[in-house]
């Protein structure tokens, strides 16, 4: 059975869809083609559940789209799954000419994509964790109680000559409202050094390099700064080798969960029940404004009230486990 996955963009979203791919590969003997954007391509390319990857370069969409449409129309898919639930993914699913086109029920669709003439899953709780929501597709296809695993391949070779023991502090976040202050990370790194005697490895994107440099200057020898220096494949190895991972609500947090790392997640405006770590510790203050799901906030009180001591309490629990 040939199945097209239309799951394009955010790293965390793609990672949380991998258990569905593995389930369909196992139970339906599926050949899976995955339509994805460049950011998340390293996660799906070479994954044991994925047989073929079609790249849609959103930044160069005028050149990329005709080639993508050509490949979709040439493919002989038994079914196409619109897992993104937005207009872009809906049109791309429609272009596939698959025998069955499957999307989520009306309540879980975005941008009125429930209007597309797709087969729909049964209604379910839109607030439950996204991993479980994606697995509703497996149940729709007759797979009862599908197993949740990620099977992200690793080489076991940790790059950058990192020490044997370290804790990853992932300082970045796609949404600015999800960011934790750099001075908090500096204080946390110093506390980790004093309590556990291990360095903190800073990770993040190129946009986080200035903040990481400031944290490094303020934290003396207690940090190793890798922000903006790792590819996705290198980041996998760095996270997999860590004793624990502290992260805001962002893609590498989900990567850490998928790799079996011990995770402490710092949550502000979002609902961790839906987009938090599937496994791990969550720190979120009880405020009337939570969850607001804002991308920007003039007064991000929810993140500001999380203290380094709160994180250390969780880390001490993990460290002694």
What does this structure look like?
The protein is of the alpha/beta class and 321 residues long. It folds into 2 domains: 2-140, 3-Layer(aba) Sandwich (Rossmann fold), CATH 3.40.50.2000; 166-319, Rossmann fold (3-Layer(aba) Sandwich), CATH 3.40.50.2000. It is built from 12 helices and 12 strands. The protein has helices spanning 11-28, 41-44, 61-74, 87-95, 130-140, 182-196, 209-218, 232-240, 251-258, 272-275, 301-304, 308-319, and strands at 2-6, 31-36, 52-55, 79-82, 100-103, 119-120, 166-170, 199-203, 223-225, 244-248, 263-266, 281-283. The strands form 2 sheets. A 6-stranded parallel beta sheet has the order 3-2-1-4-5-6, covered by helices on one side. Strand 10, helix 9 and strand 11 form a beta-alpha-beta unit. Helix 6 (182-196) crosses helix 7. The longest helix has 18 residues, at 11-28. The radius of gyration is 20 Å and the shape is globular. The N and C termini lie far apart (44 Å).
């Amino acid at each position: 059975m040939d199945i097209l996955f239309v799951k394009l963009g955010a790293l965390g979203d793609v990672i949380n869809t991998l258990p569905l791919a593995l389930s369909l590969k196992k139970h339906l003997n599926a050949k899976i083609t995955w339509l994805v954007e460049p950011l998340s391509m390293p996660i799906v390319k070479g994954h044991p559940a994925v047989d073929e990857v079609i790249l849609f370069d959103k930044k160069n969409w005028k050149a990329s789209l005709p080639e993508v449409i050509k490949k979709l129309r040439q493919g002989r898919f038994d079914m196409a799954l619109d897992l993104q639930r937005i207009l872009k993914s809906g049109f791309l699913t429609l272009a596939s000419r698959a025998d069955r086109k499957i999307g989520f029920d009306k309540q879980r669709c975005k941008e009125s994509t429930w209007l597309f003439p797709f087969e729909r899953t049964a209604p379910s709780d839109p607030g439950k964790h996204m991993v479980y929501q994606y697995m509703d597709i497996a149940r729709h296809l007759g797979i009862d109680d599908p197993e949740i695993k990620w099977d992200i391949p690793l080489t076991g070779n940790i790059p950058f000559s990192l020490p044997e023991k370290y804790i990853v502090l992932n300082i970045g976040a796609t949404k600015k409202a999800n960011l934790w202050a750099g001075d908090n990370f500096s204080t946390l790194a110093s506390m980790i050094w004093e309590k556990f005697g291990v360095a903190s490895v800073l990770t993040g994107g190129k946009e986080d390099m200035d903040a990481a440099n400031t944290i490094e200057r303020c934290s003396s020898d207690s940090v190793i700064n890798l922000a903006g220096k790792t590819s996705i494949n290198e980041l996998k190895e760095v996270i997999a080798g860590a004793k624990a991972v502290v992260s805001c609500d962002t893609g590498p947090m989900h990567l850490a969960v998928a790799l079996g790392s011990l995770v402490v997640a710092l949550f502000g405006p979002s609902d961790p029940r839906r987009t938090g770590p599937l496994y791990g510790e969550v720190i979120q203050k009880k405020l009337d404004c939570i969850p607001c799901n804002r991308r920007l906030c003039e007064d991000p009180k929810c993140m500001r009230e999380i203290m380094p001591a709160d994180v250390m309490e969780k880390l001490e629990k993990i460290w002694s486990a």
